[in-house]
Design brief:
Layout lengths: L2 H25 L4 E4 L3 E4 H17 L4 E4 L15 E8 L1 H5 L6 E8 L2 E9 L4 E6 L3 E4 L2 E2 L12 E3 L10 H13 L2 E3 L4 H9 L5 E4 L3 H13 L3 E4 L16 E4 L4 H13 L6
Parallel strand pairs: 3-4, 10-11, 10-12
Antiparallel strand pairs: 1-2, 4-5, 5-6, 6-7, 7-8, 8-9, 12-14, 13-14
Helix pairs in contact: 1-2, 4-7, 5-6
């Protein structure tokens, strides 16, 4: 099957999933619980993941799937087979609280490399897409990353882990960015943060997230001209494009300078900034 046909199917799945999400909010009474003690998940997450999984199985029966709710086995990352990486609702907390930054994220990986990405935001009426080597689009129109060169005018997106005891070390990074950049945005959806970098709404993004959170958005940002990578080398054994620790995605001219700033923050005391 051609990449274009794969993308067409993935977009159709994402948009139908988006309608399912919107209908669930309209109906109200969203049931939720907490997994791992702190991470909120709703019944709609599971229902949408089931729908996406069934559609992918019907269209691509021999291909693996990694998804947040129903197929979260990260050992799949060690293999290089064709694989779909899915977040049925990126921004679950936003969804449960009635906020608009919510997305369906579907990425396709082959040979350890991202080949296709779809991020659909049902409450924003935006669909971001990309094919490796072909470019990136928003609602069918080409998009391009920011060309900002001045760190002081850089608007940066980031997020924080659910575990509160993991947050204090990240405060050094946050203080460094607030001191040296224009400002920070925390929208609650890594997929949409990456798409905002892709279309120039944000100049940069950094965070540590799971593969399903960023796979599609990373490809979209890269194909739009952003520079993508990590603050530190990965552990090996996992394709670099699916390693989610210490992601850094920026307009090309900012990558080195912002990366150095964040690494210095990691190595210093809060008072330095």
């Amino acid at each position: 099957m051609s990449p274009e046909n794969r993308l067409e199917i993935a977009v159709d799945i994402a948009r139908h999933a988006g309608r399912q999400i919107a209908e669930a909010r309209e109906e109200g009474g969203i049931e939720h619980r907490f997994k791992h003690g702190q991470e909120l998940v709703t019944d709609t997450d599971v229902e949408v993941d089931t729908y996406i999984g069934d559609r992918l199985e019907a269209s691509f029966p021999d291909e693996h799937r990694l998804s947040e709710e129903l197929a979260p086995d990260r050992e799949a990352l060690e293999h290089t087979q064709d694989m779909w990486v899915v977040d049925p609702i990126d921004g679950t907390v936003n969804f449960a609280h009635g906020l608009r930054h919510v997305a369906v994220s579907i990425g396709w990986v082959s040979g350890g490399h991202l080949k296709l990405g779809v991020v659909h935001a049902p409450f924003l009426d935006e669909t971001f897409t990309a094919l490796a080597g072909r470019g990136a689009w928003r609602n069918g129109e080409p998009i391009h990353a920011s060309r900002t060169r001045d760190l002081a005018r850089c608007l940066v997106g980031t997020g924080f882990p659910y575990r509160r005891d993991s947050r204090p070390p990240l405060m050094r990074r946050l203080m460094a960015v607030l001191t040296h950049c224009q400002d920070v945005r925390r929208n609650g959806s890594a997929a949409l943060d990456l798409c905002d970098v892709a279309c120039g709404r944000l100049d940069a993004y950094y965070e540590s997230v799971s593969p399903w959170d960023f796979a599609a958005g990373l490809l979209i940002a890269r194909e739009a001209g952003a520079r993508t990578g990590h603050l530190y080398p990965g552990p090996g054994g996992i394709p670099e494009e699916l390693y989610g620790e210490n992601l850094l995605v920026t307009s090309p001219a900012l990558y080195d300078e912002l990366g150095n700033l964040l690494r210095r923050a990691d190595a210093s005391e809060l008072a330095t900034f």
